[in-house]
Amino acid sequence: xxxxxxxxxxxxxxxxxxxxxxxxxxxxxxxxxxxxxxxxxxxxxxxxxxxxxxxxxxxxxxxxxxxxxxxxxxxxxxxxxxxxxxxxxxxxxxxxxxxxxxxxxxxxxxxxxxxx
Length: 116
Fold this sequence. Notes:
Elements: H1 10-19, E1 21-24, E2 28-34, E3 41-45, H2 53-70, E4 78-84, H3 93-106, H4 111-115
Parallel strand pairs: 3-4
Antiparallel strand pairs: 1-2, 2-4
Helix pairs in contact: 2-3
């Protein structure tokens, strides 16, 4: 994932939260909103409620890797925010990946949704 393709500014996060669509699962919530850039920009939110810094960073690394590995399957031109829930801390990588991909499918962000 390129540094240019990540959401960093608070105003970008607030815009996606306020005007975007969302899909939820037990482990994650995904927000999306179209942008005019032609590329996906992704941000990750992991609350302090999930644990101390080591735990939060582990969850963030897992989510970032899931999005990076599956990014060829995603439609382009969206601002995306992946929010970790408390169940994400103790879950296996495979189950976390299933939940993220299911949320992306619910938001019609996968390429296979376009062809159908």
